[in-house]
């Protein structure tokens, strides 16, 4: 397999990982921090964790998806375009699911970051899907026939 395929598969893995860690964090924030056995300060918990998850998962996944697109944009590839489309769909569906979890989060954990992460990444999934569709529509150049 070419490098682009491996980069596309890596980006899918990072996008899935991002959706899983954000949804698990939102599930964790359902409980009241005062009744928990763990000593958690809610003011210093949600924002740093979300920013950490963004920098560890979705940033490298986005970079891998962009490099896979750049490497294959001239000759086009339906497989890589499909991988980018899957990236966007995973991000859109996962963040829509996380958006449904926001209303169940305990009020002590509610910050602007918790409220903004799902809609922001739902919007950012659209360009990923666009570039995937664009990559699938690129046709390979036909070789010129030399008559003389």
UniProtKB/TrEMBL annotation:
Record field: transmembrane: 7-30, 50-71, 83-102, 114-133
The alphabetized UniProt keywords are: Membrane, Transmembrane, Transmembrane helix
Asked if the keyword Transmembrane helix belongs to this entry, the reply reads yes
Name of the protein in question? DUF4293 family protein
Q: Which organism is it from?
A: Nitrosopumilus piranensis
UniProt keyword Membrane, yes or no: yes
């Amino acid at each position: 397999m070419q490098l682009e395929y491996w980069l596309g598969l890596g980006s899918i893995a990072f996008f899935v990982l991002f959706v899983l860690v954000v949804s698990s964090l939102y599930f964790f924030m359902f409980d009241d921090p005062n009744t928990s056995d763990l000593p958690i300060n809610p003011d210093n918990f949600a924002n740093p964790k979300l920013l950490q998850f963004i920098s560890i998962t979705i940033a490298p996944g986005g970079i891998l998806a962009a490099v896979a697109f750049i490497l294959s944009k001239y000759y086009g590839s339906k497989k890589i375009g499909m991988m980018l489309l899957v990236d966007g769909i995973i991000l859109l569906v996962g963040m829509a699911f996380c958006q449904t979890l926001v209303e169940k989060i305990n009020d002590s954990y509610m910050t602007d970051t918790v409220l903004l992460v799902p809609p922001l990444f739902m919007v950012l999934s659209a360009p990923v899907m666009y570039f995937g569709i664009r990559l699938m529509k690129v046709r390979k150049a036909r070789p010129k026939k030399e008559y003389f």
